[in-house]
Design goal:
Pyruvate-ferredoxin Oxidoreductase, domain 3, 195 residues, alpha/beta
């Protein structure tokens, strides 16, 4: 994306890592010398409850400190959220959607409708849950979704993302988890499909 400010809204369920993903993308952007913000919207904090996260990445200082109402990108970590009005809220024909789903982009596209029932944005689909089970041994779609996001937007570089995962996760989780997350990111980057 060749925009000065990229605003990303994350939709997921508690326990899927939307908050972590929003903050990780912001941290990688900072380490690349850009300006960024990454934060969650707190509501009912329980496993499975719908949650939102927000990331801003810019080449200039960011003066906004609020939720993202008109996103450039919407990342959906759980396709059971599709159809909820909050997913397409503020989206238009330029909005990019990155969705974790086993369905093809053509199948899910009909379910994404904006104001007046009009289709919205460009759609990227990836089965991040299966990738995370294959590579991490559990359904944690956040890191593969970041890989798909990077492919869809180039908001951060994949090399900086992998380096950051290595640095942040090694001491806390060990080499096996680091390798699994990097493989998950690489697979999602390569396997994401667009409409």
């Amino acid at each position: 994306m060749a925009s000065e400010l990229i605003e990303i809204r994350w939709h997921g369920r508690g326990g899927q890592g939307a908050k972590t993903a929003a903050q990780l993308v912001a941290q990688v952007a900072l380490e690349e010398g850009r300006f960024s913000q990454g934060f969650p919207e707190y509501g009912p904090e329980r496993m499975g409850a719908p949650i939102r996260g927000f990331t801003r990445v810019s080449d200039a200082p960011i003066r906004l400190h609020c939720a993202i109402e008109r996103p450039d990108v919407v990342v959906v970590l759980d396709d059971t959220l599709i159809g909820m009005p909050s997913i397409t809220e503020g989206a238009d024909h330029k909005t990019i959607f990155v969705i974790n789903t086993m369905l093809a982009a053509s199948e899910i596209g009909d379910k994404l409708k904006g104001a007046g029932g009009k289709p919205v944005g460009t759609l990227y689909c990836i089965d991040a849950t299966t990738i995370s089970i294959d590579e991490l041994g559990r359904p944690m779609p956040n890191t593969p979704m970041i890989g798909a996001l990077v492919k869809a937007t180039a908001c951060i570089s994949i090399s900086a993302l992998k380096k950051d995962i290595q640095k942040k996760f090694l001491a806390k989780f060990g080499e096996r988890v680091v390798r699994g997350n990097i493989r998950a990111i690489e697979r999602a980057y390569e396997e994401v499909q667009t409409s």
